[in-house]
Amino acid sequence: MTAQPDTVTTRVRTAQHPKARQSPAARAAARAGGGAVRAFLVLVGLFWLMPAFGLLISSLRGSSDIAGSGWWQVFTRPAQLTTENYRQLLENEAITDSLLSTVMITVPATVLVVMIGALAGYAFAWMDFPGRDWWFLVVVGLLVVPVQVALVPVSKLFGVVGIFETTLGVVLFHVAFGLPFAIFLLRNFFAEIPRELLEAARLDGAGEIRLFARVVLPLGAPAIASLGIFQFLWVWNDMLVALIFADSESAPITVALQRQVRQFGNNIDVLAPGAFLSMVIPLAVFFAFQRQFVSGVMAGAVK
Amino acid sequence: MAPTASGGPAGAPAPPVDKRRSTARRHRAVAAAFLLPALVLLGALVVYPIGYSLYRSFLDRTGDSFAGLDNYAAIFSDDTTFTAVKNTAIWVVLAPTVATALGLIFAVLTERVRWGTAFKLIVFMPMAISMLAAGIIFRLVYEQDPDRGVANAVWVGVHDTFSESAGFPKARPLPVHPLEAGEDGAFVTKEPVSASVSVRLPLIGVSPARMPSDARPAREAEPAADGTVTGTAWLDFTRGGGGAPNAVDPAELGLKGIKVEAVKDGEVVASTRAGPDGVFTLPASADGATLRLPGENFREPYNGVNWLGPTLVTPAIIGSYVWMWAGFAMVLIAAGLASVPRELLEAARVDGANEWQVFRKVTVPLLAPVLVVVLVTLMINVMKIFDLVFVIAPGSAQDDANVLALQLYRSSFGTDADLGLGSAIAVLLLLLVVPVMLVNIRRLRRESRR
């Protein structure tokens, strides 16, 4: 985890090799090679865009057009494009409710992970208590535990407590499995805070809580942002946890759409715009917070 | 990473012993309060379930009696679960390798172009979306019908470019027509043809919608004076009725592109294709030959590959995974690449190494640690793969595409759940990641000792 977070947008330019050393023939070869590289990258880029582009176009075609022909037909018949599917989707309460449920799950699960993880991360970084290092090793060990291990036991436990198939249950599960990474990330970040800063605040008479709220949290903002974005996307995009711990009332959009997939083929006019709608927020978050997202991905490379 | 020594925030001047003890106790209380929410959640929802799954994996289906290692044995003896084991192995080998190799190639190549950033954004973007959305995207891509699924549209396009495209499946002559069925689905003329008479090759049974879009109304060919054999191959069917059989009526279309062969004594002496109006011309050598419309004209059109059928479903889903995760490998490797000293690469180039040698002998060895991290991360990730398989594999192919995490879900929550088996799979998944867990812990201890 020593690699410095680097955004997609910042990068080190390759030094060009000294032109003077090369023969004209070598230079021509290099130029042709550069052309081939560019052409290759353009092709790969288009290839990579195509699947998602196909979904977008499919979501903008009427159901009879979808049934009869491929999305690439719009290149010759752009009149096929219509927002009708989206209009109908937004009138479909099952979908709009599930979108709301996604928000109701994602926001608390993100806020709670950040709060609880920050408290514990601070304790692990700066408080003195017996067995501190051992406890932290346990947390690090939990980083890679697959959620699958907990599905059955936790559904039984939630059944006993009475929060099985509720939003609260889904949220708590996400928080629990987000915590090891949150604690790991924040503890490491908080540990870098200069000791003098904390000592100075203590001498000024600040208690642990004030210290935490006024000094540690503001200084930890970059790490908290990374964690928040990462956790947000993770929960927003989850399907498996919600499939088990949510009922139809509290099911997020992923589960609502998954139920539709069973009739795949004759409901693409619902699936395609639904899938696209579920992607809008994550993509917006991704583009707006690339830097934090990438550093979260880097820090979480073991998760 | 410089974690604090275990000293912690020990205060300034030493207070009297009594007070110090009470301060220490208060510190502990505060620390406990800070840790409590995290420890309760982790204990109840992560640690306890591990223990429970372990315990439950040794009980039978009902949970009433001890089953020893039976559940673990069942994973490898039962056909369905063993398919899941095999597929998971395929996944773990294939998906991380392909994603990392692509990531490496992309990372190295994007360093050389000015718009490398835009390219990286495009490849990295799928990481932000859900596996469900990616699954729906690829269900569309892999649709069987080449008119709807882009993968098959491209595949069929390529296929038809390199092999004869079939034009007129189900086309056939009427009894009154001068054609009869030959071998291998071909149709041959009942009589040998002559250069002095225009040959008629009428067929029926092609739906007008499936005729080539550029086929034009058929034209009766003129007998040629130079000894060549001429004729017309056309669809002897007038829409709405009214046409006479075995006559070229005005509204009837030429069988554009249909292949016509002249056969003498079983040997093909000449062949040609009909024009848009169905007219064809054969050289004089065809005079007196039998004309044959070979079977390749009438084969069913190539319908592409059954991507989500039993044999290809796993590689197809792995393709969608690579689409999502190659960007992850690329970004991590690019970050590693940025820290490779430029002078080393330059030195190798000055020494006369070509780009490939620089890549093989300098760049890749220097990136080895990053490549290992990427591979291991992807492997852990792939072991738990669930959503993509669950969404992309159609119901009929779910058994063929089965993976451990999917089987766990089915065993635990399906209609005939077997919690013993489900728990055993859960424990197996956990065991697979334990080595990584230990490496993480060891690395952390090493760092904190420094």
Tag the structure with descriptive keywords.
heterodimer; A: 303 residues; mainly alpha; MetI-like fold; 14 helices; disordered N terminus; B: 450 residues; alpha+beta; 3 domains; five-stranded antiparallel sheet; 13 helices
Describe the structure.
The complex is a heterodimer of chains A (303) and B (450). Chain A has 303 residues and is mainly alpha-helical. Chain A has two domains: 24-86, no CATH class; 88-299, MetI-like (MetI-like fold, Orthogonal Bundle), CATH 1.10.3720. Chain A is 72% helix and 0% strand. Chain A is globular and about 75 Å long. Chain A starts with 23 loop residues before the first helix and ends with a helix. Chain B has 450 residues and is an alpha+beta fold. Chain B folds into three domains: 14-48; 79-152 and 307-412, Orthogonal Bundle (MetI-like fold), CATH 1.10.3720; 179-298, no CATH class. Chain B has helices spanning 17-56, 70-77, 79-110, 116-124, 131-141, 150-162, 313-338, 342-350, 355-383, 387-392, 398-401, 404-413, 419-449, and strands spanning 179-181, 187-189, 199-203, 229-235, 259-264, 267-273, 279-282, 290-293. Chain B has a five-stranded antiparallel sheet, with no helix packed on it. In chain B, a hairpin with a 5-residue loop joins strand 1 (179-181) and strand 2. Chain B is elongated. Mean pLDDT of chain B is 87; it is low at 1-13. Classes of the chains: A mainly alpha (303), B alpha+beta (450). The interface between A and B is large, with 126 and 121 residues.
Kindly summarize this structure in a few lines.
The complex is a heterodimer of chains A (about 300) and B (about 450). Chain A has helices spanning about 25-60, 65-70, 85-90, 95-125, 130-140, 150-160, 165-190, 195-205, 210-220, 220-235, 240-245, 255-260, 270-290, 290-300.
